[in-house]
Amino acid sequence: MLTLAPGVLDGLKYDERGLVPVIAQEEDGTVLMLAWASREALDATVATGYAHYWSRSRRELWKKGATSGHLQEVVAVKVDCDADAVLYLVRQTGPACHTGSRSCFS
Amino acid sequence: MLTLAPGVLDGLKYDERGLVPVIAQEEDGTVLMLAWASREALDATVATGYAHYWSRSRRELWKKGATSGHLQEVVAVKVDCDADAVLYLVRQTGPACHTGSRSCFS
Asked: How far apart are CA A91 and CA A75, in angstroms?
């Protein structure tokens, strides 16, 4: 179970689509990807301990790895100083990128 | 002088405001901040070797550290697999965050 300070997710500045950008970073520091989360996705991440996002292309809640098996166990959820960006610190199973690369920034 | 593959910045998917999200990461792996860049900001970054962004609050091109002195020397500019996010690998002078913290995600 991930713990967050009370009200942190309420205080986030979601954009006009109701989304915030999320950086997924491996524990060794590697930035794996940048994706987007809705409040529902953040709640699911905190509740399950696995990274959830909002797929802008499919317009649906997206559990990372639900199809591929390339799950992201979330160790910590961090919010930036002005509460408009989120960082998931993760343990990635398999490659994070759909191309098969470890990182989408490879 | 930073070198990028030809056409990389032309191929970026800018959002409806003409912006892309940019992750600034220190060479040791620390994620310092998430900000936004216009094409003009990316061009200025590549041309000068110092991180430029688009300030959404001030609605202007923003050379990081121009006022504070907390410049970001950019070692590399990376684009993600679907060309809608950018990563600046940087050498940060002083704290990256306006709060005085090293990272905006502290």
From this structure: 7
Cβ atoms B93, B70 nearer than 8 A: yes
Q: Closest-CA residue in chain A for B96?
A: A81
Parse chain B into domains and list their residue ranges: 20-92
pTM score:
0.96
Q: What is the pLDDT of residue B71?
A: 98
Residue B77 carries which DSSP code? E
**CATH architecture of the domain with residue range B20-92:** Roll (3.10)
Structure tokens at A99: 């191309």
Nearest residue of chain A to residue B27 (CA atoms): A29
Q: Which two tokens stand for residue A55?
A: 């797929």
What confidence tens digit (pLDDT) does each residue in A83-100 have?
A: 999 999 999 999 999 999
